Amino acid sequence: MAESISLTELPVAVVELDSDGDITAANPALVSLVGLNPEQIVGKPLATILKDYPFHSVKRALDNGIGNGLEQTPKISQAKSAEQTGSHKQHQSLWLLEAANSSLSYVTVKEHQAGDKLWLFVVPNIAHPKEVSEPLKEDTRTTLEALDETYWEWDIASDLVYFSPELIAMLGYKRQALSVPSSFWQRHINEQQWQNMLQQVDLLLKDQQTSFNTTYQVTTTNNQVLWVNATARLKRDSDGIPERMYGAVRNVTETKSLIQQLRKQNNYLSLAEKISNSGHWRYDVVEQKMFWSTELYRIYGTEPHAFRPNLENELVFHSKAEREQIRNAFMRSIECAQSLHHKSTILQASGKKAKIETIGEVEVDSDGKVVALFGISRDITRSEAVFEKLKLLALVNYTIKVPIFFIDEDDNVVYQDISPQQGGSNTALFDYVNFSISEYMSLKKTANQYGQLKRTHISFDDYNNVFDLSVTYEADKGVYIWIVENVTDKFRKEQQQAISSRLALLGNTFGSVSHDINNVLGVALGAIEMLELKFSQGEQNISRYIERVKNAIDKGKSVTERLLAFTKKPMVKVVKFDPLKDILDNQYLFRQVLVANIELEINLPDTQASINFPQGEFINILLNLVINAQDAIKEQEKALAQNEGGKIQLTAYCNAKGSLEIHVKDSGIGIVSENLTKIFDPFYSSKSVSKGHGIGLANVYSTMYKHNAQIRVYGKSELGGAHFVLEFPCNCVEKANVDRSGDKAIDSSSSQLGGVNRQRILILDDEASIAEFVALFLESIGAETVHVSNKADLLEAIDLKGPFDVFMTDMILPDTSGREATALVQQRYPRAKICSMSGYIDNDDKSWPYPVLRKPFNSAELSQFFSNLNTTM
């Protein structure tokens, strides 16, 4: 036996003897077989474990020098390799093995020489011969020698089958040998399997096949289903007639289960590879063979039957420039026992290019020598394209210095780049924008639905921090691109500038507005004096003078409402409203800002429109354009040295795209072509220093862009001057097609009741005449009222004149406030409905949850207000 073979490496029981027959070594398999420690075996006679083994056999084996046939390979499977080389002798006799952990059993001994030692291969026999009802013949024993212990023997002539005790026990019976007819086996398998078995036996008997080997299911006596593997050989007599059949049955249930689990795992692996667009491979360094998984064939665009993978064949998919790089990467990984990683481009059989990333790890033997490489290759064509796009966008981001985040559909950050202005430290989107998960998901959902969303001046903490936000959804890449900019400082400056601009406009219009208010007051005062005079003269028909007073007050109300709306803080909130109606409601204000000799023509379609836009900004944008048009007309007059006035035309219509277009044209000086590209630039102005500061049109452009609207400008129009076009995404409906079934007209007989009949109403206003008017009117339609004008009277009314169903209060009083008064009433009458009246316009006050009636108001408006109050509360 060659010294290169270690005794401990042999998988079968082996004992080593010296020339005296004493045990010098025993491998772990023998130690396990006899149940003794190595110290109890080594140095002891062979008889310690083998009874009556002839000592002269040891001498004869050593003297004959039976060779070193086993040195050719270390892969010895029991005695099979030795048998192939002819370097063994086998004793056909059975010897008793003395095992410490079991009863005596019989073994077969095979001899091999190892230098001046003798190795005995101890092979357990399949049963104790004395337990067999009929002793097996010599050739039968030889055949069964390599089989498992659960064996059978079929005497064909008598049709009796001998079953070993182990086989009978496996079927659930008492452990003892049986000789029964062959039909006994039919009890434990189904009919189809029985017929298949008979067919295979028939082929063996007819000499159409040389062996019998099949796997099937058996059912034990306790209904347990087992998978078994049956093998058999046929023995013929001297005349060639089948005489006996020998076989073994092994329980392979556990193996079958493992195979099924392995198949299931392989299915999962295949699914995982398909999902991840990857496949696995193994390169055997010794055999220089390559294995590919099924998915890898798909990635390379070929089929297993058409392509045999190995390192050289694989390289044909790559360009010549890459082949040497890949070959060197493999060789370097093998030589240095290091991991493998490379990216390359392949040309599939279809001619399509794909980018492949390969990652591998080495497999080494016990000596640290690399025997194989194992790894995965995945198609990264799509991800590489995304990455290239990300790098490009990141470059743009770096240029414009705005933070950008790339987040996939599972909310994982694919890439992020924070502007250098943030100090160069990366941060999470949620650290940068302080919104909640629900707000994040809502924005993400909108971007997914429409492909892109833009939000300007958006805040999630009551405008302590303000952002411009853009979210683009790349559906084919499954990536959301978040571009965010903290514009808090810019927003505050714009707000301050907007307020300043409004104050400037207010200063320009204050003179003409004061004139109109004086006219209103003059009409009202004159009508009241006429009313007083006629009444003193006893004239009864004085209704026309009362109507003059009411009309004058209504005009004054219109002026003050628009003036207050114009001067208040601009509304940032985007709302849905009708811009055409807004123009009509504010045309009075347009005319106020224009000098007398400039004509304003307004042409609007008979259409109901709806846009999403900051309503407070809409009229201001048009006012800005109208004032600019007036300045352009004045410049034209100055150029022509005349004062004939001019014309401004404001028209609107819905275009073919469904958008609302508003056109502002003038007869002014126009805009030269070289200035058209600069007209919206901040601080650019073609006016004199005293006339313009260059931020009006810049603010107009910024506001339009931020809210998905557009503005265009042309240097000349048919009127001669500039032509501005505002375009808003819009829903337009002809007024004739508008459903007015829900409109509620005010009916003097029914709505005046207002649902207040028999209700007790407490009224508080520091203007006694207003409180008295409200009380008298409500009493006229069936209510019981108490009206007071100060806090002391209010407390007295609460204590002595209650209970009350409704409390109506002014918001600003000399000795209290509407909020405080409401709290006093609710403390005593918690079920009372609350409403208020106020002359201060502040539609944005969300902290006051109750209905508000704007002053001044007439009886019809008061009635409608109480009607709505009882409907909604």
Automatic annotation (TrEMBL):
<keyword id="KW-0418">Kinase</keyword>
<dbReference type="Pfam" id="PF00989">
    <property type="entry name" value="PAS"/>
</dbReference>
<keyword id="KW-0808">Transferase</keyword>
<feature type="domain" description="Histidine kinase">
    <location>
        <begin position="512"/>
        <end position="732"/>
    </location>
</feature>
<feature type="domain" description="PAS">
    <location>
        <begin position="1"/>
        <end position="69"/>
    </location>
</feature>
<keyword id="KW-0902">Two-component regulatory system</keyword>
<dbReference type="InterPro" id="IPR000014">
    <property type="entry name" value="PAS"/>
</dbReference>
<protein>
    <recommendedName>
        <fullName>histidine kinase</fullName>
        <ecNumber>2.7.13.3</ecNumber>
    </recommendedName>
</protein>
<dbReference type="InterPro" id="IPR005467">
    <property type="entry name" value="His_kinase_dom"/>
</dbReference>
<dbReference type="Pfam" id="PF02518">
    <property type="entry name" value="HATPase_c"/>
</dbReference>
<dbReference type="InterPro" id="IPR003661">
    <property type="entry name" value="HisK_dim/P_dom"/>
</dbReference>
<feature type="domain" description="Response regulatory">
    <location>
        <begin position="760"/>
        <end position="870"/>
    </location>
</feature>
<dbReference type="InterPro" id="IPR003594">
    <property type="entry name" value="HATPase_dom"/>
</dbReference>
<dbReference type="InterPro" id="IPR004358">
    <property type="entry name" value="Sig_transdc_His_kin-like_C"/>
</dbReference>
<dbReference type="InterPro" id="IPR000700">
    <property type="entry name" value="PAS-assoc_C"/>
</dbReference>
<dbReference type="InterPro" id="IPR001789">
    <property type="entry name" value="Sig_transdc_resp-reg_receiver"/>
</dbReference>
<dbReference type="Pfam" id="PF00072">
    <property type="entry name" value="Response_reg"/>
</dbReference>
<keyword id="KW-0597">Phosphoprotein</keyword>
<dbReference type="InterPro" id="IPR035965">
    <property type="entry name" value="PAS-like_dom_sf"/>
</dbReference>
<dbReference type="InterPro" id="IPR011006">
    <property type="entry name" value="CheY-like_superfamily"/>
</dbReference>
<dbReference type="InterPro" id="IPR013767">
    <property type="entry name" value="PAS_fold"/>
</dbReference>
<feature type="modified residue" description="4-aspartylphosphate">
    <location>
        <position position="810"/>
    </location>
</feature>
<dbReference type="GO" id="GO:0006355">
    <property type="term" value="P:regulation of DNA-templated transcription"/>
</dbReference>
<dbReference type="InterPro" id="IPR013655">
    <property type="entry name" value="PAS_fold_3"/>
</dbReference>
<keyword id="KW-0547">Nucleotide-binding</keyword>
<dbReference type="GO" id="GO:0005524">
    <property type="term" value="F:ATP binding"/>
</dbReference>
<dbReference type="InterPro" id="IPR036890">
    <property type="entry name" value="HATPase_C_sf"/>
</dbReference>
<dbReference type="Pfam" id="PF08447">
    <property type="entry name" value="PAS_3"/>
</dbReference>
<dbReference type="GO" id="GO:0000155">
    <property type="term" value="F:phosphorelay sensor kinase activity"/>
</dbReference>
<keyword id="KW-0067">ATP-binding</keyword>
<feature type="domain" description="PAC">
    <location>
        <begin position="212"/>
        <end position="264"/>
    </location>
</feature>
<dbReference type="InterPro" id="IPR036097">
    <property type="entry name" value="HisK_dim/P_sf"/>
</dbReference>
